[in-house]
Amino acid sequence: MVSVCIFCMSNEKTSNHLFLTCHFVVEIWMLLGVKLNYVLDLTSVSGLFSCIPLHCSSHICDIYVTNILYNKHTICLVRNIVRFISYKI
Ligand SMILES: [Zn+2]
Predict the structure, then answer these.
(1) Taking a C-beta distance cutoff of 8 angstroms, is the pair 13, 79 a contact?
(2) Phi first, then psi: what are they for 15, rounded to 5°?
(3) Residue 10, CB half-sphere, CA atoms under 13 Å: how many?
(4) pLDDT tens for residues 35-58?
(5) pTM for the structure as a whole
């Protein structure tokens, strides 16, 4: 039995899909990319971390990494709320 993504309900639930390719989370990553005026690499988590804009200050780079971690935390939190509290998106 294949588990289905709890956000889109139309794809297999894999870590890659949940954090990188589900259209719900792609919107989050695209917002970050727009704010940085940068195209993010969503092919893998390491790709996401490796595309820290070189033209940015170390302060902005720290904010970028923090934002990635925060987004991943939020995705897990929302997934658990939907899964365990039966909340509908
Ligand atoms: Zn999905």
Answers:
(1) no
(2) -60, -40
(3) 5
(4) 888 888 999 988 888 887 777 788
(5) 0.77
